[in-house]
Prior knowledge:
This protein has helices at 14-19, 30-48, 54-58, 63-73. It is mostly helical. Helix 2 (30-48) packs across helix 4. It is globular and about 35 Å long.
Amino acid sequence: MIIGRHTDTQGRSTGERIADVTRYGRPISPAEHGDATRLLDSLLDAAADHGVTLGDLDFVADLPGACLDVVRGR
């Protein structure tokens, strides 16, 4: 499993957060997991430039779920 570079307020890595996403009853493939984790890490790298963390974003959006949806939608 890809761990990811960022953690949330509970210490879960971005990779763990992606693995916890449930969408449409279909398991996450290893390729989807890796792509979604890398996308989430990239978005959080940009957010960090503004002092925003995954914990901050959790209050307003399901960013891990959105990253998986984007990866699956391509």
